[in-house]
Design a protein that fits this description.
This protein is of the alpha+beta class. 26% of the residues lie in helices and 22% in strands. The protein is globular, with a radius of gyration of 29 Å.
């Protein structure tokens, strides 16, 4: 071997060592910088493109092997053992999960696949087999019906991805693995998903607002308060989804049992109201969701079904490589969460499979009675076809067994199935339920009404800005920003910020000051008053503000930007000589004049077209109910509203005693009645033209992410330098 050949070989060896070292650094650096926990090393990211799809449903024998290390355990020992079994799954980018739902959330009855198609499934194909019907969470009106939703239907308007464990409850966002975990990230009806927002799950008994889906069909979903949470709303999902959600949350608490990082946090289910937005930072400060006692009830009343089992198998076989233990072994919930459960300790055998589930042994007793549940939403829209999916039946068997049945159950029929509702008013409906050989019936009343007009705007708007507060000649002592909600659902403003900019600020400027709304909800079609800085003058205080900030706006020229809790811009208004605006700046204001949106339901993204000036008219949440109720009735008179505007529904008979003035007192009763009216009027059939979702959050680099990024840059630079060195050597040698 010549010295030159030896030199070349050594050079190549050195080059490959450098490349290998760089690649090793790329793979290992996040592990070195993350907390010392083996979970991190096992969280592998995968990509999707074309692959074979395994639709095999595991047998009891296979599941016995999978859960063998959890046999004969209970309590925290069982949960810890299950965590060790399911942790460290393969994770995917959030952007990939939409495509993955073509398989995991597929309606396999309406969109079957042949063996050949399964063997070579192209996730990038958005037509043909790549455009299946989906089985949506909260989508009882669509699943298996003529309204079935295809994957290609608008992902923002019709369906979207529901984090059953609200991503703000721990602040993992859309980060891997928690934010993209397919065992709790499920395709859902977009409207009901928005009503869930980031609320705890519970059963409302006070201030109940029934919810309709994105196309206006009634559901058994609702928002409201109860005795356990009299000051905070909870979310009640449709009856057919409650057990699925409970098991998804049990999985999340078990999979994320120990704190590893912001993206892999510790999560805990509690029996309490939790903060709508909080950061999980340690085992002592986990992300929380409630309510456990309600979830345990749902777990039993809405049993595991074949679709849920099949979805669990699809995720395990094709994507994450881990399972939801509470679908395979429903008894694990009893063993972990119920300290007085008297059943046997966990066994690795006897799992729920497609063939048999030993945990659920349904009663063989006959029907004793059925009744339409008060949770049913019986309001429907004129000129729509009636379907019973919004119904919920309370069933009692002769042996005392009680359970609920959704109107979508094939054993439930009504006298109006498939009938066009072409007359406004009240209609009596007979509903029947068949079990074994016995059929029982109940009669209930539905309301048919016209759909009210709605705004084309799907987000909170800046409606008025006043910067002359406390100045010479001013009426009001404080500046203010008035927000308006043009949608038919309350919006939680917790974490929203109002950023103040001077007239000379540009898109590259940082705000001069910021008022962060730490808590508060803006009602449907309602206002939210943010009191800002005070001046030394002025004669009148503002109406009671919904939140107090500290921004001091210039009277004539300035800009305000509204951003949501994730940092996304929601609205921007610049006025006077401001350099920061939408389209063009709104007119200048003064010490006695504010900048006001011309039509609170219109946003053309041109401040000069959308705004005018006038005498300040600050409106807060309570006073907004008065103006908006009057506007609502004027635009859409209801057949059951009389001259005093008292609501005549029997369930709200107390309102009848109120005269016009009493109705509009800013009282708790008036608010409750107003919200009920709005809820009854939001059964809209044409939500298709609206876009509700905000842009995806931009997640900043945090902590060890910065260091990992630096190591990657240095490694790439070393590789590039090595390549350049060899290239120069070759050129010189050639010369």
């Amino acid at each position: 071997m010549t010295s030159f050949t030896s030199f070349i070989i050594m050079r190549r060896i050195k080059f490959f060592k450098i490349v290998a070292s760089g690649l090793l650094a790329l793979g290992v650096s996040p592990l070195l910088l993350a907390p010392n926990n083996l979970d991190t090393a096992l969280n592998v990211e995968a990509a999707i493109d074309v692959r074979s799809i395994d639709t095999t449903n595991l047998s009891d024998t296979q599941l016995t092997t999978y859960y063998s290390s959890a046999a004969n355990l209970r309590g925290e020992q069982l949960q810890s053992a299950l965590h060790d079994i399911i942790k460290g799954h393969t994770s995917f980018r959030y952007s990939d999960t939409k495509d993955i739902m073509k398989i995991t959330d597929r309606d396999w009855v309406l969109s079957p696949l042949t063996e050949a198609e399964l063997a070579n499934y192209n996730f990038n194909n958005h037509t043909g087999i790549g455009d299946p019907y989906l089985k949506l969470l909260y989508g009882g009106n669509y699943n298996g019906t003529e309204h079935a939703v295809k994957w290609s239907e608008d992902h923002v308007l019709i369906w979207n991805k529901e984090h059953t464990w609200a991503k703000s409850h721990g602040d993992f966002g859309e980060l891997q693995p928690a934010g993209t975990d397919l065992h709790h990230l499920i395709g859902a009806d977009a409207q009901i998903n928005r009503y869930h927002s980031n609320l705890d799950y519970g059963i409302p008994t006070l201030d109940i607002t029934p919810r309709v889906d994105v196309r206006g069909f009634a559901t058994t979903a609702a928002n409201g308060k109860n005795e356990d949470s009299p000051n905070a709303n909870v979310f009640l999902p449709p009856v057919e989804d409650r057990g699925d959600i409970a098991r998804a949350l049990f999985y999340m608490e078990t999979r994320y049992y120990n704190y590893v990082s912001l993206a892999d946090p510790k999560l805990v289910i509690v029996d309490d109201v939790t903060s709508s937005t909080h950061v999980a930072t340690s085992n002592e400060n986990p992300g929380k969701m409630g309510w456990r006692k309600v979830l345990l009830d749902w777990h039993k009343s809405d049993p595991v079904d074949e679709y849920e089992i099949h979805r669990n198998n699809l995720i395990y076989n094709n994507f994450q490589g881990n399972r939801n233990p509470f679908i395979d072994h429903p008894e694990y919930a009893d063993l972990i969460y119920d300290p007085i459960f008297s059943g046997p300790s966990s066994s690795a055998s006897g799992a729920c499979t497609m063939d048999y589930c030993a945990y659920y042994e349904p009663s063989t007793a006959e029907l004793q009675s059925i009744s339409v549940s008060s949770a049913s939403n019986n309001t429907h829209i004129l000129n729509t076809v009636y379907h019973g999916q919004g119904l919920q039946l309370d069933v009692v068997l002769e042996d005392g067994t009680r359970y609920s049945v959704a109107g979508s159950d094939p054993d439930v029929t009504t006298s109006l199935d498939g009938v066009l509702l072409d007359t406004i008013g009240f209609i009596n409906v007979v509903v029947s339920y068949t079990r074994y050989e016995r059929t029982l019936s109940d009669t209930f009343t539905i309301i048919v009404e016209e759909a009210p007009p709605v705004s084309d705007v799907n987000h909170v708007l800046i409606n008025e800005i006043y910067g002359g507060g406390g100045n010479s000649g001013a009426k009001y002592t404080h500046d203010f920003v008035e927000l308006y909600n043009p949608t038919y659902a309350p919006i939680d403003l917790s974490g929203y910020k109002i950023e103040r900019y001077t007239a000379s600020a540009t898109n590259n400027s940082s705000p001069t000051s910021v008022s962060e709304i730490r808590s508060g909800v803006i009602p449907a079609l309602g206002y939210f008053l943010v009191q800002e800085a005070r001046g030394s003058g002025g004669t009148d205080a503002l109406p009671s503000p919904d939140f107090i900030g500290n921004n001091a706006f210039a009277a004539s020229s300035a800009a305000a930007r509204l951003v949501d809790a994730d940092g996304n811009e929601v609205d921007l208004v610049g006025f006077g000589s401001a350099q920061l605006f939408e389209g063009a700046a709104a007119p200048a204001a003064s010490n006695t004049i504010s900048v006001q949106r011309i039509n609170p339901n219109v946003d053309t993204n041109d401040n000069s077209a959308d705004f005018t000036t006038g005498v300040p008219t600050p409106l807060n949440s309570p006073t907004a109910y008065i103006a908006q109720f009057e506007r609502q009735v004027a635009l859409n008179p209801n057949p059951y509203c009389n001259g005093t505007w008292g609501y005549l529904d029997d369930n709200y008979a107390a309102v009848n005693a109120n005269n016009h003035l009493d109705w509009f007192k800013p009282s708790a009763e008036a608010k409750q009645n107003y919200i009920y009216l709005i809820s009854q009027n939001n059964n809209l059939t044409h939500f298709l033209e609206f876009e509700f979702s905000l842009p995806a959050a931009k997640v900043p680099l945090k902590g060890y992410d910065h260091a990992a990024f630096l190591i990657i840059i240095v490694t790439v630079a070393l590789i590039a330098l090595s390549v350049m060195t060899i290239s120069v050597f070759r050129i010189r040698k050639k010369d």
